[in-house]
Design a protein that fits this description.
By secondary structure, the protein is of the alpha/beta class. Helices cover 42% and strands 13% of the residues. It has 2 domains: 95 residues, Nucleotidyltransferase, domain 5; 166 residues, Nucleotidyltransferase, domain 5. Bound molecules: zinc ion (ZN).
Length: 302
């Protein structure tokens, strides 16, 4: 058994596209991928102590059920841990992707040693997880920390259609950080394939792209001020592909807004830092969480 603070060594990997047809097809693909990766690593299910499975939420990490997610077809009340576990013949522990990322950043990444920190990912979507006094905040039904759906703007008239000024979020609400700052939303609002195209256009001086980028920055800035005032963390660890590629459009506006507008005491206590684990954070988190739970540790995040 590797110590909990050791960086897991990736010995094999298999990546596949998420099927768009049904939840069953997604489960089948995950199981097939897990079998392939065990074959590549020359291990059998009997050799595997546990498997970690990361999924978008909201989900319940204790029952292993995803209650709903707008980004994967058919994932409504889907018992992923049981289904994937049956398929692989291995005990599977499910958790939200951002919780697993926060666990990994806490054990081996940018939040090592921090007792009060918030993890945020700005990527295809926006998500998060909250650790306070050394415990991951789970909430009353295990869905806490969905920071991407923190509203940072509101409709003056809720009965009218949400226009471009306040886009409706795919969760059904409006004014969510995700609706302004997520890569998928930025690309869609600009009519581009990738969020990177929007940032490139903004850098070239395209007026519409600049307006969208500025709006995304303001949404993230508001989120940062809200988090600082409400939760008083010592660190806000920000990961995700947009943060990685566009730090000046993510980290800088968050830092500036905290300095300008948050309460003085929590503003002085917090640092906004980039995540340390990059694109493999979910995989590291899944392995670390499975390892901790299988060995009866991990009380702090359960
Ligand atoms: Zn939302």
């Amino acid at each position: 058994m590797v110590e909990s603070d050791a960086v897991p060594k990736i010995v094999a990997r298999d990546e596949r596209r998420t099927p768009q047809t049904s939840g069953d097809a997604v489960i089948d693909e995950v199981v097939a991928s897990g079998r392939d990766v065990m074959r590549k690593a020359r291990v059998t299910p009997a050799d595997v102590g546990a498997a970690g499975c990361s999924a978008p939420g909201p989900l319940d990490h204790m029952t292993g059920v995803v209650s709903q997610t707008q980004n994967i077809v058919g994932f409504t009340n889907m018992p992923i841990a049981a289904r994937v576990g049956d398929g692989l013949g291995v005990k599977v522990f499910l958790d939200r992707d951002t919780c697993m990322a926060a666990i990994a950043e806490s054990l081996i990444g940018a939040a090592k040693g921090a007792k009060d920190f918030v993890y945020i990912t700005v990527s295809t979507g926006v998500g998060g997880a909250i650790v306070t006094r050394g415990r991951l905040v789970r909430g009353a039904s295990n869905t806490a920390g969905e920071l991407g759906h923190w509203p940072v703007n509101f409709q003056l008239d809720a009965s009218r259609d949400a226009g471009d000024d306040i886009p409706r979020c795919k969760c059904g609400s409006f004014g969510c950080v995700e609706a302004f700052a997520a890569g998928a939303n930025l690309a869609e609002q600009f009519g581009a394939q990738r969020a990177g195209d929007v940032y490139d256009a903004a850098a070239r001086g395209d007026t519409r792209a600049r307006a969208l980028v500025t709006r995304a920055e303001r949404a993230l800035a508001n989120l940062a001020v809200g988090i600082t005032n409400a939760l008083n963390p010592s660190l806000i660890v920000v990961g995700g592909s947009i943060t990685e590629h566009q730090p000046a459009h993510v980290l800088d506006p968050m830092r500036a807004a905290i300095a300008q507008r948050a309460f003085r005491a929590p503003a002085a206590a917090v640092r906004v830092v980039p995540a340390a684990l990059g694109a493999d954070v979910g995989m590291h988190g899944a392995v670390l969480e499975a390892r901790e739970r299988a060995s009866g540790r991990g009380d702090w995040f359960l």
